[in-house]
Amino acid sequence: MLQRVLNQYNEAIMDTDRDRALLVVRDALGMGISPEEVVFEIVVPAIELMMKSISENQGEVPFKVQEMVEKTVSLIDESFRQLQIVITVTAADEPVITGHPNEFSQVILNILFNARDAFLARKDDKPRVIAIEIFGQGGRGVITIADNAGGIPEEILEKIFDPYFTTRGPDQGIGIGLYMSKIIIEKNMPGRLSARNTAEGAEFRIEV
Ligand SMILES: Nc1ncnc2c1ncn2[C@@H]1O[C@H](COP(=O)(O)OP(=O)(O)OP(=O)(O)O)[C@@H](O)[C@H]1O
Ligand SMILES: [Mg+2]
Q: Is this model's pTM higher than 0.85 or not?
């Protein structure tokens, strides 16, 4: 019974319908639920739920994918250029997504830094290119980030999103970049983050 009253109260509060909330409380008292129970089992949990939902949605705003990608690339473009790594951004559509722009930017950076690390590990003088493509597909925004650094060994492809999985030395990487990226995209946005190999290197795909 308490659970049902709690649900009705939550709904009234979510709709910011004070009269309905008051009615639910009056009914509850009429059904023999004590004032203490009303406060501690119904009102307080409703407040907690609301605070949780506010804190989870805080800072979520609609933003243009292309604008955010270009802003992120501009932060590191110069330092990548010095390593002969060229980044191209091509946008076929103008997807707008809702979420934390800073978190989204962090994901793009993680993927770009990994591509840089893969180039540096190869030590050849082939042209180094990271191609970012942005387009809409089935109502979602898609961002692909592809490098030509040789790709990810097939036997570890399954593990790269695991926490603390790294193929780099102990003082170079701790293996959380892609794990955090996965959480940001799949839990917080929520969308999908995946990786595959192309003929030339690795390709990361973000769908939001
Ligand atoms: N573009 C890429 N090309 C080849 N291998 C990659 C690429 N991106 C990621 N990997 C592989 O995935 C592993 C995990 O990446 P992740 O970003 O999670 O950790 P890390 O880069 O090793 O360390 P950290 O990000 O914590 O500094 C890397 O160690 C590397 O083996
Ligand atoms: Mg990394």
A: no
